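Standup notes
- DV: blocked on the single-chain target, sequence here:
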Amino acid sequence: MRVLIVGLGSIARRHIAALRRIDPVVDITALRSSAGGASVPGVRDIRSLDQAGGPFDFAIVSNPTACHADAISQLLPLGIPLFIEKPLFAELGHGELLEEIRRRGTLTYVACNLRFTDTLRYLHGFVQGLRINEINVYCGSYLPEWRPGTDWRRCYSARPELGGGVHIDLIHELDYVHWIFGDPQCSRKTLRHSSSLGIEAVDYANYCLEYEDFCVSVILDYYRRNYKRTVEIVADEGTFVADLGAGRVTDADGRVLFESRQADGDDYWEQMKYFLSLLGKEAPAPFNDVFEAYEVLKLCLE
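- DV (later): unblocked, structure below
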């Protein structure tokens, strides 16, 4: 298997680890934007597609979000499937690019690894039988601790010109709400960057998504010191909380209804296996191509 990867940051390295877990001898070429970045052992670095050789079985787009559209445009003529790290783009638009993908019939998948956690998969099935009145989604963490040993103020997450901001960086939450419940009837949002972090990128986001019988509140922030990632379901049948950090679903009395046995990295591995099943036309129900991901991006940015 030969794979081209655009960008070689921390998430790209997780995709590489997942690939090597599936195929220890996978041949990986990385298209790098600069010569200064650290290399990955066994990965060939190139500076332009002219040096790529080929053919490749597929490409992974994992450079900064603001560069996704340019990377996709360069890759489309290769005629290979595209595995695109979330979010799809840093801004709305790119209609001509999406139409070109449709015209070519390019197989695409936008990577949202949380869909492959056991906890969210359990929740996806669990809520189907409930009469829901309210859902509260929260994800808070401390951006300065995300990438130890680096200047966090210079990373793309803190820089809006690179596509950073908690609203788009943590689009996972909007993605899985959309995955489980579909399109809301309407939505409202508040985006701010007034916390003590002192960054220009959005560091607080608050969404209210209205469905026919209930509303979903989604709150995201970059400044919470103690990491918390939860989904609270308030239903006629009771209140239930999915703690995505702990991998556990409990009821209002604290009884454990589900506990994940996944190890760190298993979700990336499961996700890559799913994508490879798409290539082999074995996946029973393809999901989250660029067109679905664009609908989530509209929820995030409109």
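- Follow-up: The domain at 2-113 is CATH 3.40.50.720 (Rossmann fold).
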